Amino acid sequence: LYLSRSTNISPVLVEFPFTKTEGDNGPNPYGPLIPVTFCYGKKKFPTIALVDTGAAFSILPMEVAHVLEVRLDDTKKILLSAAGGGSFIAFPSYKPIKYVFEKKGYPPLAFEGIAYFAEEEEASLLGHYQCLERFDVTFHGPEKTFSLLPRFKK
Fold it and tell me: Which has more pLDDT, 110 or 77?
């Protein structure tokens, strides 16, 4: 994340540790997960999301759309392929939702973007379109960390 402690200090690169994931993930149970709060209107949904640089879109569980009362655009639904095989339908938010990344000791970083919602999705996944395309994302495999450097102005 590109966060600064005040508006008079240059923004800084922020590094996050990989987090141990749930379930059976083979020999490497760690992944690039980040705390994020999704906001729409006055409603908020805090969660942990997977940073997936190979994903075209941010895909969230339909439950998030229901909690936030997000209006979905069913005229722009898309058919997506799942990493493990198969496919599913995702619906974009009609208007951008707010993403808020937080790191202890820094002010939150917030931006808006379209997110897609799917019934079949259980985890929150951050993808390229209107989300990760705003950052330089670097993975530090041996250290089990990743860093985000924003490429946009607040």
Answer: 77
Burial string for 32-46 (b: 16+ CB within 10 Å, else e) reads bbbbbebbbeeeebe
Distance CA 140, CA 83 (A): 22
Instruction: Answer for the pair 58, 126: CB distance below 8 angstroms, yes or no.
Output: yes
Q: Could you give phi then psi for residue 20, rounded to 5 degrees? A: -65, 130
pTM of the model: 0.85
User: What distance in Å separates the CA atoms of residue 52 and residue 128, rounded to the nearest whole number?
Assistant: 8
- Tens-place pLDDT, residues 80-130: 888 778 889 999 999 999 999 988 887 777 899 999 999 978 889 999 999
Question: Residues 12-58: pLDDT tens digits?
Answer: 678 899 998 776 556 667 889 999 999 999 999 999 999 999 999 99
Tokens of 25: 């993930």
- 3-state helix, strand, coil split of the chain in percent (to 5) is 10, 45, 45
